[in-house]
Amino acid sequence: MQEEGVTVGSAQQQEELEAPRRGEIAATEKELEANLAEQVVVLAKAIGRFSRARSDAEDLLNKEQEAAAAAAEAAGEGGGTA
């Protein structure tokens, strides 16, 4: 019987010791979740900027290619009549 009392007492002491640690762990988890959410927002904004920059670069490249094709066509027409 004495051993059961010690075991129950030890379990209660263990619980009392672990309770504050669980609170610390929960607080740390919340902090990590908040940091992760913030990083997700930053990443989403960066992806948006990258996407816009890529789209702008593609538009510029297309315009340059169209201008080069038009210039080549104009040079070909001008060379044939001269």
UniProtKB/TrEMBL annotation:
Give positions of region: Disordered.
Answer: 1-24
Which species is this record about? Puccinia coronata f. sp. avenae
Source domain of life: Eukaryota
What is the protein named? Uncharacterized protein
Upper lineage: Eukaryota, Fungi, Dikarya, Basidiomycota, Pucciniomycotina
